[in-house]
Specification:
This protein is α+β, with helices and mostly antiparallel strands. The chain is built from 5 helices and 6 strands.
């Protein structure tokens, strides 16, 4: 909210009409690595300060080399990242066969995973 008020005062010609549009602009600037934020995103800056990072830097810090950004900005599993197939998980969750649960114990190891990219059923 404060950022929106400051933007409207400082740049009166800025075509942003409400706080929601202001938030969208900030999110876009963040994804383009044009602004810096602290770890939780509660503070933003146009200049780098100690403890402030770009979106890409924070993603690399959190996910390491296991995940990467593709050209449309989507974060996907790299060749080193752990993947999860949604169909297999749903089959296991819907089944009464305990052996399926035992075979998928690895998904409960507290490691982060993205889906494997296979098209989802609609």
């Amino acid at each position: 909210m404060e950022t929106f008020v400051v933007m409207k005062k400082k740049y009166k010609q800025l075509p942003i009409n409400n706080v929601h549009e202001g938030g969208a602009v900030i999110a876009s600037l963040l994804r383009e690595d044009w602004i810096y934020t602290n770890d939780v995103g509660s503070h933003i800056s146009l200049k780098r300060h100690e403890g402030f990072f770009t979106f890409s830097e924070q993603a690399r810090k959190k996910f390491g080399q296991n995940y990467k950004f593709i050209s449309n900005g989507t974060l996907v599993t790299s060749t080193q990242g752990k993947k999860l197939n949604l169909d297999e998980v749903l089959t296991m969750l819907k089944s009464k066969d305990e052996s399926l649960l035992q075979n998928m114990q690895w998904i409960f190891d507290n490691e982060f995973r993205f889906l494997d990219g296979k098209p989802l059923k609609t």
